[in-house]
Amino acid sequence: MLIRVTRDPLVSQQAIDAVASPRAGAINVFLGVVRDNNLGREVRYLDYEAYPSMAEKVMREIAEESIRKFGFEDVAVLHRTGKLEIGETSLLIAVSSGHRVESFEGGHWLVNEIKKRVPVWKKEVWADGESWIEGPESLGIQAPGQR
Amino acid sequence: MLIRVTRDPLVSQQAIDAVASPRAGAINVFLGVVRDNNLGREVRYLDYEAYPSMAEKVMREIAEESIRKFGFEDVAVLHRTGKLEIGETSLLIAVSSGHRVESFEGGHWLVNEIKKRVPVWKKEVWADGESWIEGPESLGIQAPGQR
Amino acid sequence: MDGMEITVLLFASVADRLGTRRLALDVPEEATVATARDLLLERFPAIEPFLPNLLYALDEEYVRVTQPLTQGATLALIPPVSGG
Amino acid sequence: MDGMEITVLLFASVADRLGTRRLALDVPEEATVATARDLLLERFPAIEPFLPNLLYALDEEYVRVTQPLTQGATLALIPPVSGG
User: Which chain D residues contact residue A137 at CB under 8 A?
Assistant: First the structure.
């Protein structure tokens, strides 16, 4: 299992190699990429901040949960922090499984949970300002043990 | 759009680069990988045969259909032929889209359609024999215009 | 003698059984895919068990067996596919 | 004087508003997360609009506000996350 919060560029092949297994017939890889627009605003770049040690802990918990839930052979979750330009990868996940159905369904579940629970924040920087994104999607969070 | 049937090893980064777009917030990549077992039999290696020109034509049709259906920014579909060892990649697809939901749902649809419609065949080679796989899953095919 | 010649492509199990992946076939004027299929069965009886599961592609397009052939066309016999 | 000292970590919008990402906080014996939160609000009134949306993590674990603090613990104020 490869779990990492890093300021270095994320390389897909690293995640794929980490989940390789002779029993795997399917590998699903997801890249969250910096888009040039959000909610109608033109984005110049993003700045990601994390609580790195806790982020890795929560990423590992979610990865272990996904293995139990979807029977994955292995899982890799990497999140980048710092300044990210348009087109750069902020989130990289890879899952390996016997068959393709779980790889798609479980990969999707994994990304959703990471976006809900991992302590990482993104600041959007536009031509004329900037703002932390702590939007409605994030507000839906119900952390384990939270009231 | 990158569409290719080739005897050369498939490299994930090539598919990812092919679908990159400043408007993409999500890239989903799927690798079909040679597994060491199938239906309880131990597999030594696979041999893929294609009708290459038609396979590329059908892959392109499916890719174009997926763009209309899921609003992808771009799509890459590569299929390898020839002898493939355990762990090697036989099918590589990548899709880029604005958001993650379509990238997972549309990527899954794309793989299903490719497995149903593209003229490619796989021969399993075991320690004590070999057989073309033309199984029940494949029999469900209903090609466009077919009786 | 107003016949046509077409190319027939065979793949996977069918190609292995017949020992060839490509052959030229003379077909009569106004022949359809079904005509070609019946001629192949006559010439290669070993193809019989495969027929129920075959699809047909004419010039790289899946077609019905009622599709007319044309001079120089390529007819592919497509066993159930198993790519991916 | 039987108090404890904890470390408080701030992130994103909250850290920017308070101009710090890390501070030491003295809390009384038997303090809970809620005690710390109220002390922070007293010392940094600017934090008030953020409170309704915060979660709390104690030593890297999400906890309820009734969770007791311990000497030397690290309390993180977690604004709505937006990773991915």
Answer: 82
Segments forming the whole domain that contains residue C40: 3-78
Summarize pLDDT for C21-76 with one digit per residue, the tens: 999 999 999 999 999 999 999 999 999 999 999 999 999 999 999 999 999 999 99
Instruction: Kindly state whether residue D83 falls inside one of the protein's structural domains.
Output: no
CATH superfamily, with its number, for domain A2-134: Molybdopterin biosynthesis MoaE subunit (3.90.1170.40)
From C64, C66, C76, residue closest to B54, measured CB to CB: C76
User: Is the ipTM here above 0.85?
Assistant: yes
The CA-CA-CA angle for residues A9, B94, A102, to 5°, reads 95
Which of C11, C12, C84 has the CB atom closest to B114's CB atom? C84
Q: For D30, phi and psi rounded to 5 degrees? A: 65, 20
What region does B110 belong to: left with phi over 0, alpha with psi -120 to 50, or beta? alpha
Residues of B in contact with A20 (CB under 8 A): 33, 87
pLDDT tens across A107-118, in order? 999 999 999 999
* Among candidates B90, B119, B146 on the partner chain, residue whose Cβ is nearest the Cβ of C81: B119
